[in-house]
Amino acid sequence: MEAHQVSRDLNDVVIGPYVDGDEHEILRVFTKVFGVERSLEAWRWQYLENPAGTHIHLAKFPDGAVVSQFCGVPRRMKVRDEEYCFSEIVDSYTDPDYRQGLKKPGLFASTCYEFVNHFGRPDREIIMYGLPNPPAYRVGSRLLGYVKFYKIELLTKHLEGDAADPGDDVGGGVTAHPVERFSDDVDQLYASVSTHHDVMTIRDARYLNWRYTDRPDATYDQIEFRDAAGAIVGLCSLRHRWLDQPETVPAELLVGRDHPAVPHILRWIEARSRARGADRIRAMFRPDSPEWTGLASLGYVPERSPFRLVARTYEREVVPLDWLRDNWYVTMGDFDIV
């Protein structure tokens, strides 16, 4: 599509959901706004191949030229004993050529409102959430009614000593098995672990393989942990050299909190990370959760990050925000930062 001129009549713009083929214009404006290029393959993975669906609204001229985008990455969620959808709001923008002189409320706000009017309901997206930067937080607070939960502190441990690979013996009768794809019995692991959590992403094999294995623009070190009988007792998905730094983050760490092998698994992950060149490991869990306090007891120290968690609920009686803040099991993999 040829370059689009600012002189176009904005009254011709129509707001509606994504249709097949819009991705080329979406990516053209994305590069213009954010100054980085995203591959078509990566975009399709995140939005079209997401097992929870495609949630995008666009403001476009009749020929398909995109002016504004508002979108989310939906996730299937366990809330108590029910299933709902939460959506992480990401990649929303307006073409800078059209930011000046727009009529109130403006095309970005109008695109946002159309998205919210369509998806903001308990049977579609009961929660919208994200880790917005300060400008995005101000806009989200005004347009979406975001409520700030807390500033994210990352549990950090500096790694020292031998950088040899730890092998497959984790200790405590558990062995480590690097995998290309997560196995089907991950579903049983998730079912067991989820009984300890009121709110969490449904981490079944389908979701985990989409989120980590199938992502085309990032590589994860995927490990299943099994006992002597071959039963799966835990898994992790590690991102080495996060943000191009010598550090490892467990994007995913799924293990029963009371399993006796938990300390062994954490020490094995530390050794694995050290062998991959990391000088520190950083993890995200809900502050003061059992997972948080467990890592703190093993020498992990909270350090401030630039991230803040915010959310809006579309059914206060089902998911009140104060209850959600205090019960949501989160890891880095619940966000697009890793």
Describe the structure.
The protein is an alpha+beta fold and 338 residues long. The protein folds into two domains: 116 residues, Gcn5-related N-acetyltransferase (GNAT) (Aminopeptidase, 3-Layer(aba) Sandwich), CATH 3.40.630.30; 152 residues, Aminopeptidase. It is built from nine helices and 14 strands. Strands 1, 2, 3, 4, 5, 6, 7, 8, 9, 10, 11, 12, 13 and 14 form a 14-stranded mixed beta sheet that branches. Helix 3 links the parallel strand 4 and strand 5. The two termini are 32 Å apart.
The CATH architecture of the largest domain can be given as 3-Layer(aba) Sandwich
Contiguous helical run count: 9
**End-to-end C-alpha gap:** 32 Å
What's the overall geometry?
globular
CATH topology of the largest domain: Aminopeptidase
- Strands, count: 14
The biggest beta sheet reads:
14 strands, mixed
CATH superfamily (homologous) name of the largest domain = Gcn5-related N-acetyltransferase (GNAT)
Task: Please report which band the strand proportion falls in: under 5%, 5-15%, 15-25%, 25-35%, 35-45% or over 45%.
Answer: 25-35%
The low-pLDDT segments are none
As a percent range, the share of helical residues equals: 25-40%
CATH class of the largest domain: Alpha Beta
Mean pLDDT, as a whole number? 94
Query: What count of domains describes the coordinates?
Result: 2
Alpha-beta content class: alpha+beta
Q: Round the Cα radius of gyration to an integer and report it.
A: 21 Å
Order of helices and strands: EHHEEEHEHEEEHEHEEEHEHEH
